[in-house]
Amino acid sequence: MAYPTTPKRAEIEKLSAAGKPIAEIARLTGCDRATVRKYAKPCGGGATAKPAAVPVDPLKDAEARRAHARELSREREQLQAVAGERSFRAYLDRLVRDVAPRLDPPPRFREAKSGGEAVEETLLLLLSDWHAYEQVRPERVLGLNEYNAAICARRAWRVVNSARSIAAKMRAGGWRFPRLVVAANGDMISGTIHEVEKHNDAPSVIQAAIGCGLLLAEGLRDLAASFEEVTVYGTSGNHGRLPDHKRVSQKDPTRSWDYLIYSIARQALADVPAVKFVLPESYSVVYPVEGWQVYQGHGHDIKSWQSIPFYGISRTATGLNALRVAAGSPIHYFLFSHFHNPGSICAPGSEYFVNGSLIGGTEFSVNGLGRCDRPSQWLLGFHKDHGITHRWPLYADGPGPEGSYTARPWEL
User: Angle CA(139)–CA(368)–CA(209) in degrees, nearest 5?
Assistant: First the structure.
């Protein structure tokens, strides 16, 4: 009906003025929709009046646009940080579950009851800076050190069995150690920074990570044979960052070879109920040991002065503790790594421990710093009333019992 009669046109205009929709007018009048659109009038008759334009301040409008863009950018960064970190972490967890072998559990340990009143404590073993499978050749460090896959496996075995031996001897003297805390504090392999992966005693950095994870699992399984409970706190260091990060990103603490190593060890020990893992989405963690608050962080953000980290450690720990005191939960002990130089520093109300390394002297430390510290790891004893009552530097070299873990698990 291309040309409706005058009554039809009048009816269309009337219905349109009454606010009826196009489809309903077409149904009521029997006209097609194109015809109705042609003769329909806007509601209220005549053309719809446009509202008067409100003057806009160009400066305020530009600032509002910039503020909106900044807000959108912040939201986008937060979503990417959360989604990216969690999705990558979930991917690693699925990958490890598919490829990591499971170790058989050791016989379940039961703490023997002593005849007299026993002193019950918790031991803490600080493991870090293994730099597993990195090669250090004696001729490059004045003959002061050597490191490779076999030496790494022997030193790891020496540390673990020294801790077990100390616990056994103290138990004979009246102590009880039902619990062990393992502070795994990063730089377990050297990773891909500084092109160190070219000097690894492993086919690739991926196999170095897998090998180190299984090496750590072997050590933890042996420790589970000497303690009723073994709780592992795993934090990442700076060497663990992946190749796509030129610098350590505070947003991605689990995008790290260290996290992959801990995940492999956790999967390998899935059938060992005595071992529990805590892998926080953070570069540091605070947890209680016998009621004392312990801070664990690798320490790669700490600045040194004249190659001396003391001032940076003190400043960082003082600032962190001020925040915790304000929150009502002060830190009593700080566990740092990174510097490869074992030691402890007393401070009002707290104490700072710096761990040694498993690798010992390297080309950088010997030729650049004039240092070649003995490979060592800390073993600390915690009492509920007295805090840390004894401390043992576990030296991984020198005379002692001979043994080793699997040096090259990728060859199995």
Answer: 70
